[in-house]
Amino acid sequence: AETHYHDFVVEAKPVKRLCRTHNIITVNKKFPGPTLTVRNGDTLVIKALNKARYNVTLHWHGIRQMRTPWADGPEYVTQCPIQPGATYTYRFTIEDQEGTLWWHAHSKWLRATVYGALVILPKLGSPYPFPKPRHEVPIILGEWWDRDIISVLRQALFTGAAPNVSDAYTINGQPGDLYRCSSKGTFKVSVNSGDRVLLRVINAALNQQLFFTIANHQLTVVGADAIYHKPFATRVIMLGPGQTTDVLLTANQRPARYYMAARAYASARGAPFDNTTTTAVLEYNTARGGSSSTSRPLLPRLPAFNDTATATAFENGLRSIPSEAAKVPTKIDHSLFFTVGLGFVNCNPGPRCQGPNNTRFAASMNNVSFVLPRRTSLLQAYYNNIPGIFTTDFPPVPPLQFNYTGNVPRSLWQPRFGTKLYKLKYGSTVQIVLQDTGIFSTEDHPIHLHGYHFFVVGQGFGNFNPRTDPARFNLVDPPARNTIDVPVGGWAVIRFVADNPGSVWLFHCHIDAHLTWGLAMSFLVENGIGELQTVEPPPADLPRC
Ligand code: C2O
Fold first, then answer.
1. Distance between CA 435 and CA 390 in Å, rounded?
2. Ligand 1 in reach of 61 Cβ (< 6 A)
3. pLDDT over threshold 90, residue 480
4. Sign of the dihedral through C-alpha 541, 542, 543, 545
5. pLDDT tens digit string along 438-458?
6. Of 96, 125, 154, at which residue does a domain stop?
């Protein structure tokens, strides 16, 4: 195994998109940021220097961080932010993960532009469990705002209005041909007829589920969230923010130019969204070595924005391979039921409270709207026994039972604020029913667990039925993921073993608007016995609050 050293300088840079130039925060003045390519078993050492004018942290989305939670990155959860002018070195080892992950800022909404791919190849000499591709290409889907992202965040935080929707979707930082002033930068992949290509598709969008497809080409899904899955063929994939999907395609069509395209899957009823389409080009080289043609590429048909059936069919097609499926927990120690949803809170009129009738948005799990500490991080508070930072009374079930996806009385719209954790013993098995609520509106929620991946043993629409639904769980080959898109007006059930010790692991909606409103909680996984079951001590340069 190798150790890879990188310098990540976080700094502002003027970038021109959609005919306008404005300053965005980048890593190493690249947008998207640098791709990290490593092998399973390698160690990464990334020295982050903050030259921006905001506090920042970096998160390695999906990396398990076994015993190294100090490198996980969510601000005020596992570390205090890196202040302007300061540095912090993230050091971690990849243990038994292969495929595509990504890294992003985990501070305010800076991940809008601070992100990049993290590619984990098999160990030297071990093959992929699928035919070897000729090309491998990260395809990072994102969102672009004409406005400064911090001002967009303020609007989301303090008003009852939905946050400003983005001005474009992007593929590898580029809106593509269908947007104004964008065709020069459109991302291209060149292939020869017959080539096999592995696309590592990442949804780095801040607030939007996306469909992705390629004109005339069949996609074969082979992995998701850096876990191999059984190959299955599909025209369209759907990714919630945070999710990754690896797809193979074969250049077996007439040599020409074809668009790959992504567009919103906007399951929320009535919520505003960007209804435009981002494109990149798949271009065949001709026999003479030139590119196929300069004619306009063929556009694929994308599903309608509210095509829940296509999204569901894709998710049902994803199945784990036998070696992974053998790890599905069958005996459950902690059986939890969390509601996930949006609501409003009353607030004092003023600049921080601009919603209708003196309200602003809030979101919650089990009616607790998560509040981050400011004096120190949760992990430091736990490690150093600092009292008064958090409590461990997160409710295992909702405080109140109601018709979750029905018409919910207004009295249930108001969550309570709290920094509540749920304690898990090292090695215990956990099942969580995630139930979307119709408080304010039903909507998909891409729920992400730090430090783990989990099995999705079931999902469906309406209210979870504890008497009939468990009988239909898939314990044979359920997909394994680090982020589950809980269906609109529905539920999903996940299982995992709490085998990553000694830390606080954030569990949250990966739509940044919802995270900002409090759609999060944290697990506190206790240490076990012996070195392999105990967290490592904090690095000396861990930032101070
Ligand atoms: Cu990719 Cu807590 O996030």
1. 25
2. yes
3. yes
4. negative
5. 877 788 999 999 999 999 999
6. 125
